[in-house]
Design goal:
Blueprint (H helix, E strand, L loop, with lengths): L13 H19 L3 H7 L2 H11 L4 H8 L3 H13 L4 E8 L6 E6 L2 H7 L5 H4 L10
């Protein structure tokens, strides 16, 4: 998951959702060289949310489920990190790997910021300088 690819995969059962949660946790454990229990014990919820999205690009719901953070709290952390310039959400929508609803991917990894601020849709590109007008 650290490669920050679109994690929109088909998860149809509780078993699949648990696999997603376990994968996110294992990615964090490996990246930070600590157990999930240690991470929960040593970090506040908002810090854990930030760290989670630094190493795993996913939706608010998926990261909250993996980190056992209430979604409402995750939404507050997201907004606070956005205001501080520490979190970017994708322009394009993707299917949430946890709920299957249209959502945006989130990341606190600065390497993802430029990519997230560009759309994969040609609609937006028509209006950029040098779009399809031949310039």
């Amino acid at each position: 998951m650290y490669n920050h690819c679109n994690p929109s995969i088909s998860l149809n059962s509780t078993k699949d959702k648990q696999f997603l949660v376990t994968s996110i946790r294992q990615t964090l454990e490996k990246a930070l060289n600590k157990s999930f229990f240690q991470l929960k014990k040593e970090n506040t919820e908002d810090r854990l949310y930030y760290l989670g999205l630094r190493y795993v690009t996913t939706t608010n719901k998926a990261i909250c489920e993996a980190l056992t953070i209430p979604v409402e709290a995750g939404t507050r952390y997201k907004r606070s990190l956005e205001k501080a310039g520490l979190l970017v959400q994708s322009i394009d929508g993707f299917n949430c790997p946890y709920t299957f609803h249209k959502s945006h991917l989130l990341s606190t990894n600065p390497k993802e910021f430029v990519k997230f601020q560009k759309s994969n849709s040609n609609q937006l590109n028509l209006f950029e300088k040098g779009g399809n007008d031949g310039n």
